[in-house]
C-alpha cells in the first residue's frame, strides 16, 4: 500500500514548535483553547462541580449511549441554541444527535447533505474567506465541492459586507452557505444584526441552504442569547437549516468531545414527517461512523444545562472567560497605540471572541517568532486567550519592533 506523504497540520505543527522552544519569554498565541491569567488551562468551576456530582453518583456506569446520544443533553442543547420558546421546538421541527464535538457535528451535517441534498452537480458549499481550515477538509472528504465568499477586508480589517453579499447573490441557486454563528474563526469579525438580516434575505431569494457552525456561544460576548441571535433569527424566518454545535470552548470540554448536530425543517404541514425521515437517515449515518457518541462530556454539560443553579454558575464562568479576553483586547490596543506602533489598532477591540486577525503579514509573523519567540499562525491570527497581564507588555513591544 502506498500513499503520498501528507503535510503536517499547520496548527498542531505550530504547537510542537512552541513546545520545543526553550526561551523563558516564549508566548503561545496559536492555541485555540482558553488560558487563565497564568497561561494555564482553566477547568470551569461549574464543570468541576458537575464532575464531582457525576463521579460520586453510585449509579454511574459506562454503558453505551443510544445512537443519537444522551436525550437530556440533546434536548437541552436545542433549547440553548434555539431559545426555549423557539417556534421550531414548539412545532417539533427539529431533530438532534449528539456528536463528537463540533467537528463531528460539521462532519455529520456535511455527510448528510452529500447523500441527500440535490444532485452532485448542483450543490456547492460556500465558506467564508478565510474560514476554519477544517471546513475544507471535512466537506471535501464527503465529496462536496466548495468555493469561498469574500469576508475579511484587508483594508479595514473588518467585514467585506458588499463582497460577501454579492458573492452569495451570484452563487448558483440552492448552494450550501456555511456561516459562523458568532466569534468568526479566524478573524473575530462578526456581522451586525442588520447585516445578518440582509444576508438572510439574499439566502432566501437564492433558495440557498444555511449551515451554521456555532463553536463559541456565550464565549464571545458572555451572553448566550446574544451569541445565538443569528441562528434564532434564521429559524424565526422559517429557513430549513442545520447547526453544528460545539461545547469545547464554552464549557472548556475540549478533549471530552461534547457536541450536537441539529436539523431544523421549514414550517409546513408535513414538517414532522420530514423530521422523522431525516432523523432515521442521520441515525444510520451515525451508527456506521461512530455507533454512539462519547458519554462523559455530554453528562457534564447536560447536568449543568438542566440544573438552574449550575446553569447560573455557568453563565458566571462564561462572563469570566469572555471578560478576561475583552480586557486583553482593550489592553493590547491601548499599549500599541501608546507605543505609537505604525498602523491602526481599533480592529483589536472591534473584533470579538477567541481570535483576532491582527493584520500582521507572514513576514512579520516569522520575525516575531525568530526575534521574540512569539508563536501565531502565518495568517496573523492570534488567540487572545494566550495573552495575560504577565506577557501583554512583552507582546506589544515585540509587535511594535516587528512592524517598524
Ligand atoms: N468550528 C469552528 C469555527 C471552530 O472554531 C471549531 C473549534 N476550533 C470547531 C468548529 C470545532 O471544534 P471541536 O471539534 O473541538 O468542537
From TrEMBL:
One of its GO terms (cellular component) is cytosol. It comes from the Eukaryota. SUPFAM superfamilies: PLP-dependent transferases (SSF53383). It catalyses: L-aspartate + 2-oxoglutarate = oxaloacetate + L-glutamate. CDD domains: AAT_like. GO terms for biological process: aspartate biosynthetic process. It is an enzyme of class 2 (transferase). Pfam families: Aminotran_1_2 (PF00155). InterPro entries: Aminotransferase_I/II_large, Asp_trans, NHTrfase_class1_PyrdxlP-BS, PyrdxlP-dep_Trfase, PyrdxlP-dep_Trfase_major, PyrdxlP-dep_Trfase_small. GO terms for molecular function: L-aspartate:2-oxoglutarate aminotransferase activity; pyridoxal phosphate binding. Its EC number is 2.6.1.1. Its cofactor is pyridoxal 5'-phosphate. Keywords: Aminotransferase, Pyridoxal phosphate, Transferase. Residues 25-398 form the Aminotransferase class I/classII large domain. In eukaryotes there are cytoplasmic, mitochondrial and chloroplastic isozymes. PANTHER family: ASPARTATE AMINOTRANSFERASE, GLUTAMATE OXALOACETATE TRANSAMINASE 1, ISOFORM B. Belongs to the class-I pyridoxal-phosphate-dependent aminotransferase family. Homodimer. This is Aspartate aminotransferase. It comes from Didymosphaeria variabile.
